[in-house]
Amino acid sequence: MKINLERLEKNLKELSQFGRNKDGGIDRSLGSEAEEEARSWLLEKALDMGAAIKIDAMANIWINWKRTNCENKPITLGSHHDAVPDGGMYDGALGVLMGLEILQTLKENQVPLNHPLQVVSFTAEEPNPFNISTMGSRGVTGKLTLEQLQASSHLITGESLTAAIKRAGGNLQGLLKAQLRKNDMAAFIECHIEQGRNLYDNQLSAGTVTKITGIYRELITVKGEANHAGTTIMEHRHDAFLAAAQAALVVEETVKALNRRDVVGTVGWFEVSPNSANIISGNTKFIMEIRFPEELIKQKILLSINKEYTEIENIRGLCFHREIILDQAPAPMDDRIMKIIGEEISKEQSPLPPSAEESSGLEFVEHVPMLVSMAGHDAVHMSDITKTGMIFVQSIEGKSHCREEKTDSKDIEIAGNAMLNAVLRLDKELTYENLN
Amino acid sequence: MKINLERLEKNLKELSQFGRNKDGGIDRSLGSEAEEEARSWLLEKALDMGAAIKIDAMANIWINWKRTNCENKPITLGSHHDAVPDGGMYDGALGVLMGLEILQTLKENQVPLNHPLQVVSFTAEEPNPFNISTMGSRGVTGKLTLEQLQASSHLITGESLTAAIKRAGGNLQGLLKAQLRKNDMAAFIECHIEQGRNLYDNQLSAGTVTKITGIYRELITVKGEANHAGTTIMEHRHDAFLAAAQAALVVEETVKALNRRDVVGTVGWFEVSPNSANIISGNTKFIMEIRFPEELIKQKILLSINKEYTEIENIRGLCFHREIILDQAPAPMDDRIMKIIGEEISKEQSPLPPSAEESSGLEFVEHVPMLVSMAGHDAVHMSDITKTGMIFVQSIEGKSHCREEKTDSKDIEIAGNAMLNAVLRLDKELTYENLN
Question: How far is CA A350 from CA A200, A340, A341, in A?
Fold first, then answer.
């Protein structure tokens, strides 16, 4: 039994038309007409297949294929259907449509399953104009309050999130009742493009995900002294901008010293005040971000950074105000699902020569790469309530969040068939487990 | 003979009322009502004194006291009456009113002069909403084209510069005819607050200026590669922001290594793109500024910077695009005027103990500090057409361009009397020179 690659790619192409802009990118964020059209198209697809549909309080779409005489909790496959501004056609969409393809393949082949199978398409996973990302998965796993959601409105149109969710078929008032509880589900698997270059650089189609990165962010304000850029001699300066520049380079240096592929540090947002060519900056703000696979590594980095920042403060005679604005722990994937996905990939994908495996810098089990996801996903939040796994598919040159995002047919096929077989194995193994 | 300190301070206080805002700062840029009121007040003062008034094409105000039988070119004293937003009451105003006070003192004492004496108040010296600073002095010394001036309009109100200058009593059409030619004037002296801390740190009232700093600016664009802050491992990055941060620190390091009080380097304007916490910057721009007393020093700094920037480009695999946006040579003051001002200051001001002179880091001649002006002034442009000198007066804590700007009465008095006597000596010495 194989997935129908042609059908899957046809669906990918059809879905990608919603929000396609003149440059070839896709604009499909919550609140837009394109996002509504994508939802209608998805619902129609599901109905055509004879599946049942449920839209929850967060407007997440649940597509169910429930066999009779089946008392187990469902196995869920899915991702999200929204896109970043000017984004590509695979991020999110591939995971939803892969789920749908597997459901359809199993249904066509009349495969008897021990668990109901469902596909989910989450609302607003990407950064969006309502300023709440992974909105659908966080909402439905109890990580967002009703107050927080009701306070949000569209940055440009001003539409309230309440109204936008309602238009999409949800209802924020039903949030509490809709919340998933631990073990409401047997398992969750998300298929997603890698977004990094690990698979591409090694010419591999797919890998299994071991964990999803932790993300730590500080908003740092450097308070120095604004002054005339001509008349203030160098030794009298307390240049907030230069201190912040130095602090950003410290992040890079500290993270690089660890020499790991699963730890990164970035300063991407930086604001100088008063920002005038002839005035020494008195105040500079920046956001420092660290992504890490283990709490201990984060602690080690922060310890080193703290020491260096104190030194900068002392030498330059100015002051760092540091505020933690995000501290999301790494989310480990379920061991069994990770292993099953890995084993099924190994049956579809040719192994690398041993020397290539060794020089790749990656970890392999049975010739399948065990990857850390360096981007956040809906799977982070699903892992709080159910056994969760992810399968990564190569994205060419590691590109994502851009219109150039591309994944080869052969890689989709290999990942799809591995995922199909993983679902079948999970369906059996989880049942035996329940019997024990 | 002494200046009338009480009258001078009364005038300073009166002029400071025009544009005084609720926080105590002064808003008096070209185009504002306050600037017009300041002009009217100045003209009235001049008429009360019985002086003749001329307003030139650039709306610069010229106040003349012409003795009969006097064929020499005039000696001119002055500065500007406009202010930076939320500025102080001494920058510019002190120079104009000091000129007026000296003129009035000489007139009252019926001192016979060999040269006509005139006071000038230049239009729009400070950065202003028409985006042309030292506008009046540049205009009247032939450094601005009519096209350039006519193309400018007020950033907020949209009023054309042509109209604003007309309201102020000028007429851009008359620009060519109004231009000063070399030796149209016998000398120009500008009295100004120091704006730096050299006089304040050594508790000195006044100093003579040896030259006005050269200013060099580059707009530098760093082109790297925007990428996902999570999925791009450290060694695959071409982070434009980090390269620019490093480049800014290179400017500081290079300039500091020279260990001079008359060389500074600053990055005050810095713009990161796309400026998002989770995206590695693909493009960062900044303005690098160097102020220097000699062309050779600038060359030396640039040589060192060029080398370091090439290294950053190579190591980080990105590219610096550098554009020179300002290259203003240092303006040396006239040797004789510098010397006369210095000698006259030495008669009014108590010398420092020799050890304090030595440890100050300043150059002294006859116990008078010889200062490099690290800010630009109208005197830069006047030095192109006539013998020019400047006298600096202490500003407390070196503050300027802010409402806290303050200068002590005793410092004003010492500087004023030194300048009065310098004018008398110049009046004599320049006449003897003409006879030779």
Answer: 14, 17, 15
CB-CB under 8 Å, B400 with A229:
no
User: What is d(CA B190, CA B76) in angstroms, rounded to the nearest whole number?
Assistant: 9
CB A220 within 8 A of CB A286: yes
Q: Find where tokens 């607050």 sit.
A: B193
CA distance A311 to B310: 29
List where CATH 3.40.630.10 sits in chain A. Answer: 5-212+331-435
- Interface A:B, Cβ pairs < 8 A: 168
For residue B435, what pLDDT band results from cuts at 50, 70 and 90?
low
Which residues, numbered 250 to 269 in chain B, qualify as contacts with chain A under a Cβ-Cβ cut-off of 8 Å?
A: 252, 255-256, 261, 264-269
Domain A214-328 -> CATH class: alpha beta
pTM: 0.87
The predicted complex's ipTM stands at: 0.87
Ramachandran angles phi, psi of A290, nearest 5°: -125, 135
**A303/B contact by beta carbon, under 8 A:** no
As a whole number of Å, the end-to-end CA separation of chain A is 29
Partnered with residue A192 across adjacent β-strands are A392
- Chain A residue closest in CA terms to B292: A230
Contact B229 A281 (CB under 8 A): no
CA A365 to chain CA centroid, nearest Å: 24
Separation in Å, CA of A279 to nearest CA in chain B? 6
Q: Do A255 and B234 touch (CB under 8 A)?
A: yes
Domain A5-212+331-435, CATH among 3.40.630.10, 3.40.50.720, 3.30.70.1560, 2.40.110.10: 3.40.630.10
Whether the CB-CB separation of B235 and A209 falls below 8 Å is answered with no
pLDDT tens-digit map of A275-284: 988 899 999 9
CA–CA gap between residue A166 and residue A54 (Å, rounded): 14
Which residues are bridge partners to A370 per DSSP?
A: A208, A363
Q: Which residues contact A217 (CB under 8 A, 6 or more apart)?
A: A287, A288, A289, A290, A324, A325, A326, A327, B277
Q: Which of B228, B270, B291 sits opposite A401 (nearest CB)?
A: B228
Q: How far apart are CA B133 and CA B29, in angstroms?
A: 11
CATH 3.30.70.360 location in chain B: 214-328
Cis peptide before B274 (omega within 30 of 0): yes
Cβ of B241 under 8 Å from any chain A Cβ? yes
| Confidence grade of residue B69 (pLDDT, cut at 50, 70, 90) | low
